[in-house]
Amino acid sequence: MPLPPDRSMRFAPLVDQPQPNRALRRMLADELARLQPAIATSAAVCGAERYRKHFDSFAHACLLLFHGLSRGASLRQSYAAFSACPGLVELSGLATTRDTLAVSFSQFAASNTSRPAAFLSQLLPAVLGRLERSDQSHAIPPDLLLLDSTFLHVSLALAGWLPPSDQPRSAGVRLQCWYEPATELPLRTLITTTHVNDVQALDVLLLEEPLQLAALAGRTLIFDRGFYSHRRFAMLRTARIHFITRLQPQATVDDIVDRPIQVMFDPTAPLEPGELRVLADQQITLGSPNNRAGAVLPAMRLVTAQVEPSAAAQRQGQTTQTYQLITDRFDLTPLEVVQGYRWRWQIEIFFRWLKSHLLLERLLGYSANAIELTVTVAILVHLFVVLAARALRTRRGTRLLALLPWALAHLSWRDLGERVPAHQLLLPLPP
Q1: Sign of the torsion angle spanned by Cα atoms 111, 99, 78, 158
Q2: Is the dihedral of CA 376, 377, 382, 384 positive or negative?
């Protein structure tokens, strides 16, 4: 239903705005055209069309993508703004003879809980597959894969399905993620309650999946101490998957053999901002035979380095850190081992992007299904931004994200005509 004038709609004054680049509109229309049959197939598999004669899964996906890209203050505001985009309304199949959508806001909101989230989440592998096959040059080594998780607070009062907690602020879910920094792609995700720790999530995502283990052979996983487990490290080595992580302070280290370090500077000189210095490079045996739950890992490598924070980090109070990094990679220089671990910060930047710009924490509902749908929409919007960035040969970021909803608002089936190389046209940004 249209909102009263005093609750302004984000896209109401479309006629007063510059027309977005036509190539970008065609790219978005092309992607939606690709998604439509895929959504129909996934919806049939999970029964998402049951009892929804006038609101099919493709229309639902269009509304959700518009909400995610427009980053409206609320779901209701996005619903109202969607109705002010005639081409998009027609494309989604929600047009009527009246000045309203074919689905009410209450039906849209309720469907986020009642329609299986799988109708959308099952599309992610196909979109990721297309992006993985595209060329993407990056300074980060392509074999690196980052593992980490981020916390999403969910009120226990509104989500009774969550396990009880003595600390209400710690109630919620965790989003486990594999992130490929060279391509900016979240290759796999898993939503768990906070009662499942990172090590257990590693079992589900990787170690209990023989096909995944085989697919990652030869790659290098970077993770923090939350995933630390000698027994699991042994499983990774058996699968020929490399790793770099920080040494647990309580870990047993034996059979230490020093390796030569080529010192390129005065070791007594103070470090400059952002500089790092390797203090030791050693071959070790990791683990104790007395620990029945663990494993003994011979021929491991321990690199100790001192890292000075950048000038900006120093202004925020960060001080010099000493890293003790363990890895099974002896082919890298000590500096490459340290830099490999420092690339782990890229997944933190990705989580910040999801939360601050793609509004991951603004939930579509409080059921498990609605939370899964929230995560899927945020990731799908991220993939659309990456698709647009590669089509336009530009960088992913807030500047491009600001343009996408305007292009989507002007979308119509007419944009599926002859393709124009997107990088040849300039992009007028909305004011």
Answers
A1: negative
A2: positive
Beta bridge partners of 221: 145, 243
Distance of alpha carbon 121 from alpha carbon 378, whole angstroms = 11
- Tell me 415's DSSP state: G
Cα atoms found within 13 Å of the Cα of residue 412, Cβ hemisphere only:
7
**What are the contacts of 401-406 at 24+ separation with CB within 8 A?**
401/69, 401/357, 402/429, 402/430, 403/20, 403/21, 403/24, 403/427, 403/429, 403/430, 404/24, 404/28, 404/69, 405/10, 405/11, 405/66, 405/69, 405/70, 405/71, 406/11, 406/17, 406/20, 406/430
pTM > 0.70: yes or no: yes
Q: How many CB atoms lie within 10 A of CB 37?
A: 10
Q: Which residues does residue 180 pair with via DSSP β-bridges, in sequence order?
A: 185
C-alpha distances in angstroms, 31 versus 41, 404, 411?
A: 16, 13, 12
DSSP result, 300-343 = EEEEEEEEPPPHHHHHTT---EEEEEEES--SS-HHHHHHHHHT
pLDDT for 310 equals 76
Q: Which of 383, 382, 381, 370 lies closest to 173 in space, CA to CA? A: 370
108-165 pLDDT per residue, tens: 999 999 999 999 999 998 888 888 766 555 688 899 999 999 999 999 889 989 888 7
3 state DSSP class of 174: strand
Alpha helices per DSSP H over 98-209: 105-114, 118-121, 124-133, 198-202
Does residue 19 have a pLDDT over 80? Answer: no
Which residues have a Cβ under 8 Å from the Cβ of 419 and sit 6 or more positions away?
23, 26, 30
Q: Say how far apart CA 21 and CA 339 lie, in whole Å.
A: 39
Look up residue 174 and give its two tokens.
Answer: 């965790």
Gap between the Cα atoms of 31 and 54, Å rounded: 23
Q: Per the structure block, which two tokens stand in for 343?
A: 């690339």
pLDDT tens string 259-295: 988 655 555 566 655 678 899 999 999 998 887 777 8
Of 363, 372, 368, residue with least CA distance to 162: 368
Alpha helices (runs of H) in 57-135, residue ranges in sequence order: 57-70, 75-82, 86-92, 105-114, 118-121, 124-133
Give the neighbor-by-neighbor strand order of the sheet with 220-222: 185-193, 172-180, 144-153, 220-222, 242-246, 321-327, 297-307, 276-286, 253-258
- Phi (first) and psi of residue 397, to 5 degrees: 175, -175
Among 88, 152, 208, smallest CA distance to 351 is for 152
